[in-house]
Amino acid sequence: LLKKSVRIFIVLLIATLLYPSGVFAYSYGDPSKDDVAETFKLILVRLNNDSPDWSGAQEAYKVRRAEISSHFGESIAVTLDTNFEDKNKELLVDNYKALLVMNIKRRFDYAEKDINDYSKTKILLAKAKGTYDTIQPYVQELAPNETQNLQTAFEKALEALGNPGLFGVGEKPVQPEEFKKQASYIIETITPLFPYTEAKKKSEDSQSTPTTEEKKSTTASTTDTDKSSSTTEESSSSEQESDSTESSTNESTEKDSEEAQTESKTEETSTNDSEEETKFDSEKKNEQPSEEIELSESKTDIAEIEVAKEESTKAHDPMERNKKTNTATSFIVITLVASLGIGSIVFLRKKGFI
Amino acid sequence: MEKRLSKQMEYKKEGNSKLLLLFPVFVLSIILFFFMYYRFVYASPFARTWDEVDFALALGRFDLLAMQPHFPGYPYFILGGMFFHQWIENPAKALSILNVFLTASTILPIYKLAREKLSQINSLVCTLFVHSISYLWIITTQPMSEAAAIAVLWWYLWIIKLAMNKKFSFLFASIAVFLFGSLMGIRLSFLPFGLGLILLFYYHWKITKIFFIKHVVILIVLTIIFQFLWIGGLILSEGSLVGFIQLASGFVYGHFNEWGGAITTTPDPLWERAIQLLFYNFLWVGLFGQSILSAIGMSFLIALFVRQGYLFYRNQPKKGLFSGIIHDFDSWLLFLLATYFLWALFAQNIEKPRHISPLIGPFVFVVSKTVLDYIEQKYSQVKLKINKGKKLYKEKKLIKSKVMTVMIYTVTLALIVNQALLGMKLIEEQAIEVPATYQLAKDLNEYDEPLIIYTWEETRVMEFLKVEYQHKRIKTYELFIEDIRHRNNQRVFITNHVLEGFEQQVGELSSKTIQIGEYHSNPLFDPVYSQIILYEWIKD
User: Fold this and answer.
1) Is A227 exposed, middle or buried, given 0-12, 13-18 or 19+ CB atoms closer than 10 A?
2) Which of A47, A131, A132, B250 could disulfide-link A37, Cβ–Cβ 3.0 to 4.6 Å?
3) How many CA atoms lie within 13 A of A91 on its CB side?
4) Do A22 and B267 touch (CB under 8 A)?
């Protein structure tokens, strides 16, 4: 029985040895990443090429559209829609930056409301900081003297949230006033830097007849999906061509096409989302989303983080390990040394020392 | 038992040898204390890697979300560090000192474990041997949680052995459970050693018939309570349970999905990983301290150990093999080590040799214990037979076994001296040599004009050092290009890691960069960021 189990063990060992691993390679995730900001990065990456990938950028945006519209109002989503349709890159990027400022404000507002819920405020502040870090280079360009102050303001805001400490060691109280002060300083400093230009014609429509506009937008998005699903094949093939001319690796093209497929899937779900969202809006006519939404959002946050992360990692991290310790040398050296040790034992055994 | 008796007889025969025996005991103890003192003096004051910065920052403000420390929190380790931080200003040094203190405490369990079989002197030699391993010198004086966890592991192993010695001891079993809780609160990745508890419970059930279901239930409940002690501390530090669960799942999903640091998502064949883990990380770096001399000496002892092990298993009755080795603590220990090895192979980052550090001490312990035990047995056997009067024939054997004794002692002492000197040199270097990451951070401070540096993990050290200039972590080339478009008033620098990453994405970039400086430190202390090349990016 023992022999048998040993044999099975050896077979299993060899089988696992031959199987490629690396699945378990790990690092730590970052829950402070903000989806709205991550989408901005995706859009930038796709538009910054010599030949901007508009459909790809719009798909990235579509995933986030429902969230944007429910939190910042449909008019902003519509403005971004029109910017995409006009292929006006500058206006789109500027508006999205303004949106990111609103996003920071949103995180601060909810943090102020729940100032005593430490775990919640901390995540909200981290997301605000994550969003700020995305637009930090532009702040640096527009107001170079303010970046240091803003950095310390964020640090002070974190201090103001208090800290339960580790087993009570290092406990600190909450300072709501201090937090409010720092938050409003940050918002007041960066808001004027990023003006928001609303798209003219459609925004008027949306203000006058919001319900019809919503219907329009949903129908528009569904037709869009039809279009894009037919164009994804084309776009991916064109991508392949352009990529090969850019002499990038085959892997990346494969990844791109995979991504296009997955995104066309997620897009279908996003249309469902937009339907749900219209229900949401009809339930609450007033623009400001209530706490319930925020709660449900915080639940879905984690899931969103994952999705966004998978996307972004596929897109951004075509890395390979580049430095390897020389396993072959150490193997040979140690085998030699080991045979020396074994040899000496065998020798001693023969001479009767052992 | 027989062996013990014979040993006592031996001592009595030599009459006034008590004083003679005391002398080496005294010397060996002095050397052991000197080891600990030396580590105390050269405890590393640097937080040179991302992980070390995580720990160091946690002493000031414990905040899992801000990755100080990173998940899963290491709460007891941080708590211990906070204690020493009261007197030691530098948080990194406070953690190193904590490690040194805890490691010094392991003298007792190691000595006691060795004493189960060996004489006083040989037990001390065995303890000294374990503490002389040069890689453990480095680990002990670093502000990482490994050394603290290894220290608790020794206590845990000793208590398990004590529990095994009794027929059934509820007290020792519950202490073992408590120590396992502490171990997990210091370093969760030592999880496989929990198998020791299961083995212990099984042992009691198998050996004694008085292991009631009542005891099992109480012990399991205790296990859960002791684990929840540190988890509860984490939850409290996070404010609420929901917040903690959110955070944890956020980290864990990222943990296995996202690429980061120095590891790969491209699959390496497992056999290659296994070879690197066993031959490079464990044997070459861990056991031999990258020294050929140690390698030769160690392999001699290991070969003898393997032979003794083979004899031991061969002499077990074929059918009752299992019931024979269940009493053998060394077999348990080796089984635990093998389990941890597989765990390290599958679930740990093999780029960092410190992940196999818990294997080194116990393995050296088993080897040296077996070898020293071999001498003692051999010697007493021959002596016993001589006493019985078979003089002429045995005289020859006595000489041979004396030669063998001298040889093994020589090799062991030479190894101890070699490894310890190496270890001392290394921790001196570790405490004095400025890490490459620090050199880079300080060099950039010299520039007067505004600048930004893009890095991988070096940014964390800059954050810890609170440098004046801007620094940012970046991986994607397109994002980098977008980022620097708006940096007209800043000089732009990147490190070699960033550049290599970019070149994998878009191809050759040497025409866009100028090399500015190069920074080196010993890769033993930080395998990934010990060599940094600084480039300036030429803007269009």
Assistant:
1) exposed
2) A131
3) 15
4) yes
